[in-house]
Amino acid sequence: MTPLRTMHIQPLLAEVDSNLESHYVPRRLSELTPAQQWMKNSLSEEAIAKDITIQVAIKHPDELLAECRPFGFRSLTSDEWEWACAAGSRTMWKWGNDCPTDGLPYNYHKTHPDWNLHLKTNAFGLVIAYNDYSPELCAGHILRGGDGGSLTCGGVGVLAVWLLLASAYLDPYQEQPTEPAAPLELCSDRRVLSLDRFL
């Protein structure tokens, strides 16, 4: 978790929802690169034999960040993402200090239709930190709000997975900017317009 601190956030406008769908293309299994072969692990032998088509991430994080620049857009910094997610609150999650202990975020609303607080917009009206499989790419290649499913698939436990959606959660490996060598699966980005130049 990041420490309690004072930050100066410049005025900005942020997209209500992050952009995920445009980063994927359909690709047949036989067309996967060596680095993408792991995607076959969860498929049946029949699906592999039929050479089915799956959705594959095609954009490098630098491409995602570069797409924000036209017309003055940029990505959120890690600090700005945390501020935008918490929306002024000091609770653990955007919805409060409690989370379910009997299921994981990515499908909890399907098994417990009466509890879907993680899917609702926060106090700023942003769709943010709702799916542990869908991290958001911030400036400096820092991921917030998910990890692509690593903790879920690693079997670390329910609370650890819900912590990915906490406003102040930052993976220890993400504390320093990284240089990813390949597209990040299930990664999204959010365009931001700084308003300080207009004030």
Topology diagram in text:
Elements: E1 12-14, E2 24-28, H1 45-49, E3 53-57, H2 61-67, E4 73-75, H3 78-86, H4 108-111, E5 136-138, E6 142-144, H5 150-154, H6 158-163, E7 191-194
General description of the model:
The protein is an alpha+beta fold and 199 residues long. It has one domain. The chain is 18% helix and 13% strand. The protein is built from six helices and seven strands; from the N terminus they run ββαβαβααββααβ. It has helices at 45-49, 61-67, 78-86, 108-111, 150-154, 158-163; strands at 12-14, 24-28, 53-57, 73-75, 136-138, 142-144, 191-194. A three-stranded antiparallel beta sheet has the order 1-7-4. A hairpin with a 3-residue loop joins strand 5 and strand 6 (142-144). It is globular and about 60 Å long. The model has no long low-confidence stretch (mean pLDDT 83).
Quick synopsis:
The protein is of the alpha+beta class. The protein contains six helices and seven strands.
Ends apart, CA distance between termini: 33 Å
Classification by helices and strands: alpha+beta
Query: What does the radius of gyration come to?
Result: 18 Å
In which range does the helix fraction lie?
A: 10-25%
Shape: globular
Helix segment tally: 6
Low-confidence stretches: none
Mean pLDDT: 83
Strand content: 5-15%
